Amino acid sequence: MTAHGARAVERCRILADVPFSETSGSLFRFWLGPAYQRTFTQVAQWMEEAGLTTRLDAAGSLIGRYEGLTPGAPALMIGSHLDTVRNGGAFDGNLGVMLGIELVSALNEEGTRLPFAIEVMGFGDEEGSRFAAPMICSRAMAGLIESIPENMTDASGITMADAMIRYGLDPARLTEAARHPDELVAYIEPHIEQGPAIESADGEIGVVTAIAAQTRQRVTVIGQSDHAGTTPMTMRQDALAAAAEMILAVERNGASGGATQVATVGQIDVTPNTSNVIPGEARFSLDMRAETNEARDAMAEAIRTDLRAIADRRGLGITFDTPQYLPAAACAPELVEGLARAVTSVTGRPAQRLLSGAGHDAMAMVDLCPMGMLFIRSPGGLSHHPDETVRVGDVDLAHRALLAFVKEFQS
């Protein structure tokens, strides 16, 4: 076992504590916040110690570059994101960045330069924890965003434009984060699996073949607020009661499509949210994912049909807003095969191949360059949770596989 895997794990744990979190006693780091700035300062230091030169792009993402044999050569980009969900775990996203740094550290220790540059990427916003628009930074890099969304605010009422300005970024220059396809030969994202498949197969690391299609919607149910003590049950327009029935319909539809389809309501808000008033409005999130775009869209339409029927039967209004719509993203076959060979070289076994049900920055990067992903076992299948963890031996295998991959890789 090398020291690189252990150091990657140790640094993820460092970044899970004060001062790299917005909250004490739990991990929460969002795009362009104070903890975000402190994290990027620390990660930039680690990058430079490994032999990378660093810069921030126009979206506030951190890029470290290790030149190849020819200065200015196109780069193989390796990395992930440095933001987290609220009350998140230490390794989601962060581990991919640390593995990129350790890869360069190993190459630099050997004095090895490659025919291509290596860029280590720390995206600033994958989770959408601050604004309801995930993957702002990777989508900007892929040239998928022409301007920032207008009138989108965080929980404190700060607009995205104001957040960028306060951080020292210019919203009008966001498109300058876009990279040209000629600048990159591929993007590789190492990531914890966030599920149980590798562990259930008694494996350590695996290769992703594709990322599932997903869409996020906001559903608003509009009823009538009224007195809880004087309004007969038969005369109510209770938005929350309707939302409860709708959530069960979401669950039923999600379960109807087998193991490659899921639907989740994870957030709900009620107005006026008072114990003795019938709720007049309920708003809830709706996350739908499936292996293909067609399966995702069919499920989404079935859910919308059922929810509208519930609203009509109860005499309520309903609206749908779609802040995110991401197509399925296939990993480049040549990268899948190259990563599979590298995994076999360090484990001695055929590489396990998996579909990713979780979204990743790689979904955006597929519009810019060939994309591949390496998964690391998640003990217990746990993620987006404070108890999320990894095994040092697994991380070291991932480091060694990445090192083998880049040395074999032909741009």
Compile the SSE list and pairings.
Layout: H1 3-14, H2 34-50, E1 53-56, E2 62-66, E3 75-81, H3 94-110, E4 117-123, H4 136-141, H5 160-167, E5 184-192, H6 197-200, E6 205-211, E7 213-222, E8 226-227, H7 239-255, E9 261-264, E10 268-271, E11 277-278, E12 281-290, H8 293-314, E13 317-326, E14 329-330, H9 333-347, E15 352-356, H10 362-365, E16 371-376, H11 392-408
Parallel strand pairs: 3-4, 3-5, 5-16, 6-15
Antiparallel strand pairs: 1-2, 2-4, 6-14, 6-16, 7-12, 7-13, 8-11, 9-12, 10-12
Describe the structure.
- The chain is an alpha+beta fold and 411 residues long.
- Helix content is 34%, strand content 23%.
- It has helices at residues 3-14, 34-50, 94-110, 136-141, 160-167, 197-200, 239-255, 293-314, 333-347, 362-365, 392-408; strands at 53-56, 62-66, 75-81, 117-123, 184-192, 205-211, 213-222, 226-227, 261-264, 268-271, 277-278, 281-290, 317-326, 329-330, 352-356, 371-376.
- The strands form three sheets. Strands 1, 2, 3, 4, 5, 6, 14, 15 and 16 form a nine-stranded mixed sheet that branches. Strands 7, 9, 10, 12 and 13 form a five-stranded antiparallel sheet that branches.
- Helix 3 links the parallel strand 3 (75-81) and strand 4 (117-123).
- Helix 7 (239-255) runs antiparallel to helix 8 (293-314) and helix 9 (333-347) packs across helix 11.
- The longest helix has 22 residues, at 293-314.
- The mean pLDDT is 96.
